[in-house]
Amino acid sequence: MADDSSRAGARYTNPQLLEYVNRVHASHDAALAQAFVVPEGIPAIQVGPSEGRLLHLLLRIAGAKKVVEIGTLVGYSAVHMARALGPGGHLWSIEYNPRHAEVARGNLAAAGLADRATVLVGAGRDVLPTLAGEAPFDVVFIDADKDSYDHYGRWALEHLRPGGLVIGDNAYLFGQLLADDARARAMRAFHELVAAGCDSVCVPTPDGLVVGIKR
Ligand code: SAH
Ligand code: DHB
Ligand code: MG
């Protein structure tokens, strides 16, 4: 069967197996293994090592030069993405929490990426309009407040070039995607607007990663 849907729900992973593949495919990463700081009191809710690597590879495949991230935390995904940018490329990453933003700036500087990335402090809804003058973007990565994903997705489709990528983490909404509340409705609206405006997929990472190529 070409579409082997009988295997769709199978899970063949375990922690040791994941540790092995992450070590093999993402081990040569001194900046993220040693210099990267996640201080006490800040939740370690960054994307996993393979998703960071996937973001990096997607940006390189897309030849990305102008990228927006919503939800910096302390810059883990930002380091992966900024390192993927072509000459003259830039990452604008938006973070609501000033302490997170400050740590992220330090991590980006320690990785030698200070000139390739700008961390903007504020709510995504307020900061995104200030970036409109830099459009069109090559990639928009959404990883902030989950009840705004529909708003962020709409902004992304309006400000990406055709062929640009919209990417969204936590697309399974911690397993609550089908719940009957405003946050789940916003996340489903995000899925549906990306599917309507892009060739898209929801990659089955632990919490789902939407990737769409804008038409
Ligand atoms: N992308 C990061 C993880 C982001 S975690 C990584 O993989 O390394 C989500 C972040 O979104 C948190 O730091 C949180 O403070 C921030 N956030 C929450 N609401 C926000 C909003 N309205 N606008 C911008 N950032 C927000
Ligand atoms: C949370 C946010 C995230 O983006 C994530 O990947 C995991 C957890 C959170 O807000 O708890
Ligand atoms: Mg996330």
Give a structural overview.
- With 215 residues, this protein is α/β, with parallel strands linked by helices.
- It has a single domain (28-37, 48-214), classed as Vaccinia Virus protein VP39 (Rossmann fold), CATH 3.40.50.
- Helices cover 38% and strands 20% of the residues.
- The chain is built from 8 helices and 7 strands; from the N terminus they run H-H-H-E-H-E-H-E-H-E-H-E-H-E-E.
- The chain has helices at residues 15-26, 30-35, 49-61, 76-82, 98-110, 124-127, 149-159, 182-197; strands spanning 66-70, 90-95, 117-121, 137-142, 160-169, 198-203, 209-214.
- It has a 7-stranded mixed β-sheet, sandwiched between helices.
- Helix 3 (49-61) runs parallel beside helix 4 and helix 7 (149-159) runs parallel beside helix 8.
- The longest helix has 16 residues, at 182-197.
- The two termini are 30 Å apart.
- The model has no long low-confidence stretch (mean pLDDT 93).
- Residues 143, 169-170 line the site of magnesium ion.
Topology of this protein?
Layout: H1 15-26, H2 30-35, H3 49-61, E1 66-70, H4 76-82, E2 90-95, H5 98-110, E3 117-121, H6 124-127, E4 137-142, H7 149-159, E5 160-169, H8 182-197, E6 198-203, E7 209-214
Parallel strand pairs: 1-2, 1-4, 2-3, 4-5
Antiparallel strand pairs: 5-7, 6-7
The protein binds S-adenosyl-L-homocysteine, 3,4-dihydroxybenzoic acid and magnesium ion.
Magnesium ion binds at residues 143, 169-170.
